[in-house]
């Protein structure tokens, strides 16, 4: 894994953003493994507040706040779906439209740590939607741009699986095999949100992982995203 200083995308007096590697949890969990939160606090030499989360197996931008006011302002933007979130994902080649919007109703099972999808409203289910676009063909796989409209637990993983196109390496949601390092090919590529104290919008971009099929992604294709 890279040194923490190599993972820092942005820092100021209010927040710090990392390019989290896949396999690293955002927060401490029952495994006791190192976390992005703990690493960021060691780097910043201060307590930090968790603003949002990424699945452990997912890589990409994650933001921590340095103050309570910043944490409250940022968390509210996430809760109200005011943050623009763009992911890149690799799926098996599938007979799907070149672009489209997916809308499902999701139910998360806490005991099994899995999200179930339904095409119709159900008691206790949350509506979820995303927009996807096929960007590139990669041998037997395809690169997708995913604009996350809502932000539900395992949303992208569950919705793409329901479409018959699970994320590469994601055996929980239908991939035929795991990746050697236990990650899945889903990357939180870009976040746009209002800075917690300045009247300006920020754009944070996380460079792609350097392993696996990510090496074959055409950087020119994603440059203008």
Compact overview of the structure:
By secondary structure, this protein is of the alpha+beta class. 17% of the residues lie in helices and 35% in strands. Strands 1, 2, 3, 4, 5, 6, 7, 8, 9, 10 and 11 form an 11-stranded mixed sheet that branches.
Description:
This protein is an alpha+beta fold and 225 residues long. It has helices at residues 4-7, 36-44, 68-79, 155-162, 219-223; strands at residues 8-11, 15-20, 49-50, 59-65, 84-92, 99-109, 114-118, 126-138, 141-148, 186-194, 201-205. It is globular and about 50 Å long. Helix content is 17%, strand content 35%. Strands 1, 2, 3, 4, 5, 6, 7, 8, 9, 10 and 11 form an eleven-stranded mixed sheet that branches.
Percent of residues in beta strands: 35-45%
Shape, principal axes of CA atoms: globular
Largest sheet: number of strands, sense, barrel closure: 11 strands, mixed
- Segments where pLDDT lies below 50 for 5+ residues? none
Mean pLDDT: 95
- Total DSSP helices: 5
Q: Ends: how far apart?
A: 27 Å
Radius of gyration (Å): 17 Å
Q: Count the strands?
A: 11
Helix and strand run = HEEHEEHEEEEEHEEH
Helix content, binned percent: 10-25%
């Amino acid at each position: 894994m890279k040194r923490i200083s190599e993972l820092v995308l942005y820092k100021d007096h209010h927040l710090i953003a990392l390019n989290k590697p896949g396999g690293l949890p955002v927060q401490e969990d029952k495994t006791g493994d190192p976390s992005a939160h703990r690493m960021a606090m060691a780097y910043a030499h201060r307590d930090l507040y968790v603003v949002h989360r990424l699945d452990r197996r997912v890589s990409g931008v994650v933001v921590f706040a340095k103050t309570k006011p910043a944490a409250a302002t940022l968390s509210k933007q996430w809760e109200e779906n005011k943050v623009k979130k763009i992911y890149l994902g690799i799926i098996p080649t599938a007979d799907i439209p070149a672009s489209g919007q997916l809308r499902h109703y999701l139910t998360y099972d806490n005991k099994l740590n899995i999200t179930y999808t339904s095409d119709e409203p159900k008691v206790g289910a949350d509506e979820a939607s995303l927009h996807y676009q096929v960007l590139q063909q990669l041998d037997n796989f395809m690169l997708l741009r995913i604009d996350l409209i809502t932000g539900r637990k395992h949303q992208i993983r569950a919705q793409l699986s329901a479409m018959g196109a699970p994320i590469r390496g994601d055996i929980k949601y239908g991939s035929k095999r795991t990746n050697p390092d236990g990650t899945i090919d889903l990357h939180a590529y870009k976040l746009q949100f209002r800075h917690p104290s300045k009247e300006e919008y920020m754009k944070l971009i996380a460079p792609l992982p350097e392993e696996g099929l990510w090496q074959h992604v055409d950087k020119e294709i994603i440059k203008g995203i």
